[in-house]
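Our platform keeps sequence and structure together, in a single record for each protein. Such a record has a labelled line for the sequence and another for the backbone structure tokens. The tokens are whole numbers drawn from a learned vocabulary of local backbone shapes. The remainder of this section carries one protein's record, kept here as part of the documentation:
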Amino acid sequence: MTKQTRRVVTGHDDQGRAVVLVDGAAPNVRVRTESGVISTLLWVSDKTPADISGRADRSESAIGVAPPPNGSVLRVVEFPPLANGPERIDHAEVMREMGLPHEAKPARHAFTHRTRSLDYAIVLEGEIDMLLDDSEVHLRAGDVLVQQGTNHAWVNNSTQSCRIAFVLIDAQEPPAWKSPIEGP
């Protein structure tokens, strides 16, 4: 089971003073059955510049991996060790669980996907491999990755879970994409 993520959200009271609106375990936790990945959605914005007024809990959204158009997403994801090889995992089902379209062309790995977004990934605990089309990068706790809409797969080949904090920001489609791939 995943380690709970404490979420503190600040805002303003009726007099305009800075206050804590939320302080506790983030409630929007989703387990992806095909991959075993556990995703905790912490916040979503649906426009830029972001609306920072109000007191609504903006994590109470049912969205896929990609951010909304002109928006952003903050989540913490726990990747368990890969117990079975990728040949036992259904790529189409992984994409469905992530809320992403399934491409007809063969993927390098069952977890391969991309989003039309600028992604900041901060490895909090553990280690993981990020597979690209023709290379891979090994990341450890403390490493930071900036990803610009590339095909990739997160694969945990270690024996311990890996936790990563992600910020995804909607972006323009890069000219290198031959066909548009977007989230929900």
